[in-house]
Amino acid sequence: MNRTRILHAGVVWVFLTISCLSANGLSTQSQAIKSSSPQEEDFVSSHETCLVEPSLSVDMGERLVPDVATSLVTYTLPNTGITAEPTPSDVVARYREAAEQGDAEAQYNIGRCYYTGEGIKQNYKEAVKWLRQAAAQGHAAAQYDLGCCYEQGLGLMPDYDRAADWYRRSAQQGLAVAQYQLGTCYRDGRGVAQDFTQAVHWYRQAAEQGHVAAQCDLGDCFYAGQGVAQDLAGAVYWYRRSAEQGLAAAQNNLGFCCQYGQGVEPNIDEAVKWYRRAAGQEYAAAQYNLGNCYYYGQGVVQNFDEAADWYRKAAEQEYAAAQYRIGYCYDYGQGVPRDHIEAVVWYRKAAEQGLAAAQYSLGYCYSTGRGVGRSYNEAVSWFRMAAKQGHTEAQKALQLFGVE
Predict the structure, then answer these.
(1) Residues 6+ apart with CB under 8 A from 193
(2) Which of 56, 58, 62, 90 would be 86's cystine partner, CB 3.0–4.6 Å?
(3) Which pTM value belongs to this model?
């Protein structure tokens, strides 16, 4: 999983990466378009009436806890002696003077300046030099930042073992962001042996200090029963604490639990509220889930236009399940003008990400000439991909075509 960390004074930035879950199968109606060859047309047309139309069924939406990265902690150096409004270069000069005298706080700050290029030309090697000096004196934030540099290979060779070691030193001093990152190392087995119990331990340490990402990831551990006995009510507790601080992933997950009564009484209105908050932050999984609510009329008045709009927003963020759904909307003219060619465009995007339902639908389009020229080879290829993932209708389609 990808993580990006930046140093930025006094700000916590959250970067999310999302991984997509599969959706249920679709089919399309047959409508002939000129085939790529007469032989293919004869073969396909003799089987097309036997193929099962893909159809949407109510799915359980998406509950995702993405990878969350947190910025470096920033401290300010007291008593710099600057009385007038300083320029960035003035500040760097004062930091350097104090740093060269062994002041750990100044060493940390000048290291951050070199990292960000604030008041001085960016230089990761110089950043590491000063951060290391501060870290050696026990400066918790510098220890964490040095761990980030080792993890990302900034100013030195990447070394996950050393990254985890510096995260641990900082975490043991109580720095929440380091506790969270050490927990993630244990969860992913990066720089340490994978150990979900240890992951939960460090997530809890950070979560109890109010670290928003740790609260969400701790909720995920309770939800999945990783490193702790499964406890859906416990998952909801931590999702809610994180959601109330505004983390979109937690808002989406809390909405999911509310919708399906997992750890809390079912409440579709509450679910829609949380989906909408996360969707408003452009969180793709929540946009998709909110689109489903509008599509099926769950907690809101059924509205295909709204459904298609939310599907599109998520689809444009490369969210496979939403790409598939907006493709279906185009295929059947639900909330958008009917356009089989556009449907194929979106089916293909989702299929190329490995979504079995989209692979089947794309295969069906090739088999019937719907939005694309007929092609037996392409149809079979996409059916095979879906069938390998256990897609029942794709497996049946291959049997109808007499291939494995």
Answers:
(1) none
(2) 90
(3) 0.80
Rounded to whole angstroms, the maximal C-alpha distance in the chain is 87
pLDDT of 176 > 90? The answer is yes
Nearest-angstrom CA–CA distance, 50 and 72: 59
SS3 assignment, position 157: coil
Q: What DSSP string describes 161-219?
A: HHHHHHHHHHHTTT-HHHHHHHHHHHHHTSSS---HHHHHHHHHHHHTTT-HHHHHHHH
Two structure tokens written together for 303? 């509205």
Specify the amino acid at residue 107.
Q
Measured distance CA(232)–CA(212) in Å, rounded: 19
- Assess contact for 349 and 312: CB atoms under 8 A: no
| pLDDT tens string 121-133 | 999 999 999 999 9
Q: Smallest Cα–Cα separation from 184: which of 225, 214, 161?
A: 214
How many CA atoms, within 13 angstroms, populate the side-chain half-sphere of residue 113?
Answer: 23
CA distances from 135 to 68, 273, 342, 384 (A): 24, 44, 55, 55
